[in-house]
Amino acid sequence: MITPTEFYAMLEQHDWFYSYSDDHRVWTAGNEANRKLQSIIQENDVLTRMYVDYSKSVHNPDLGKPVLEDYL
Fold first, then answer.
1. Would residue 15 count as lying in a domain?
2. Domain count of the fold of the chain
3. Is residue 68 within 8 Å of 5, Cβ to Cβ?
4. Is residue 41 domain-resident?
5. Exposed end of the chain (fewer CB within 10 Å): N or C?
6. Would you write out the chain's pLDDT as a tens digit for each of its 72 residues?
7. Domain membership of residue 59 as a residue range
8. Does pTM top 0.85 for this prediction?
């Protein structure tokens, strides 16, 4: 089982804008990484909330990036 700290690091490293890429390899890698994140959050409500909050902050920077300590 993945820890919130490990999952947060994955969220920070994820290419949230892969779907805008013209390079199919970048899109494929980003899509696969996103599928992995999606499969992980199925296991844990805290990780799901972390994913949703982080995703919202990436697409709306005014919200501010979530802090890991809020999920521990």
1. no
2. 1
3. yes
4. yes
5. N
6. 899 999 999 999 999 999 999 999 999 999 999 999 999 999 799 999 999 999 999 999 999 999 999 999
7. 1-7+31-72
8. yes
DSSP 8-class letter at 19: G
List phi, psi (to 5°) of 23: -90, 115
CA-closest candidate to residue 36, choices 22, 18, 24: 18
Residue 22: both structure tokens together: 């013209």
* Cα–Cα distances in angstroms (integers) from residue 65 to residues 9, 41, 43, in the given order: 13, 19, 23
Instruction: Give yes or no for a contact between 58 and 18, defined as CB atoms under 8 angstroms apart.
Output: no
Residue 49 forms part of a structural domain: yes
Structure tokens that stand for 3 in this block: 């820890």
Q: Which two tokens stand for residue 62?
A: 């005014």
